[in-house]
Amino acid sequence: MFDQSFIERRKLTIIAVDPSSITLPEVQRIDSKRIKFRQWIYLPFFMVFLLGEPTFAQDVPPGGAVFKQRCGTCHVSGKASAMGPDLAGVFGRKAGTLPGFTYSSAMRDSQRVWNEMELDAFIQNPQKAMKGTKMFAPGIGDAKIRSDLINYLQIIE
C-alpha cells in the first residue's frame, strides 16, 4: 500500500557529534541567536520606558532636585519625619517651634525666624551657623545651589 522507499527516506538519521569537532564560529552563531532572542524579550520593558510620560526641565523647579537629593532623606515635605522637621512653610516660622518634632536645645533657644539670609547661612554650614544643632549635613558651599534651594523652600507647602 505504501511505498517502502518513501518511508525509508523520511526516517530521521541521528548522528553522533564529537564536541571537539565543533568550531568556534558555529558556537558564536548559536550564542548570537540566543542573545538576539533575549533582546526581543526585553523590548516591551524598553517601550514602556520610552513611551512613558515625558518630564521636562521646566516641570521641576531648580531647587526641587537639590531638595530631593540633599534634603529629602531627612526633611519630607508635607509629612512628619523622625529625622527632620517638615520644611513646608518654613519661611517666617520661628526656628524650633514646629510641633511633632524634637529639636535640639540650640535650635529651640535660638529665637531665629527663618528668612532668606538665615536659611542661606544655615544651609551653607549648619554646625557653624548654629552650634549644637542636631542637623549633621555638611552644608552646601555653592551659592547658586543654595539660592535655588531657598527659592524652592519658599514655594513648597
Structure overview:
The protein has 157 residues and is mainly alpha-helical. Helices cover 48% and strands 0% of the residues. It contains 7 helices and no strands. The chain has helices at residues 4-10, 24-51, 62-71, 105-108, 116-124, 126-129, 143-155. Helix 3 (62-71) packs across helix 7 (143-155). The longest helix is centred in the N-terminal third of the chain and has 28 residues, at 24-51. The protein is elongated. The model has no long low-confidence stretch (mean pLDDT 76).
What is the topology?
Elements: H1 4-10, H2 24-51, H3 62-71, H4 105-108, H5 116-124, H6 126-129, H7 143-155
Helix pairs in contact: 3-7, 5-7
Mean pLDDT: 76
Coarse shape: elongated
Count the beta strands.
0
* Low-pLDDT stretches: none
Instruction: Specify Rg, calculated over alpha carbons.
Output: 33 Å
Gap between N and C termini? 90 Å
Query: Which structural class fits the helix and strand makeup?
Result: mainly alpha
Q: List the secondary-structure elements in sequence, H or E.
A: HHHHHHH
Tally of DSSP helical segments: 7
How much strand content do the residues show?
Answer: under 5%
Helix content: 40-55%
Q: Largest sheet, described in full?
A: none
- What's the assembly state of these chains? single chain
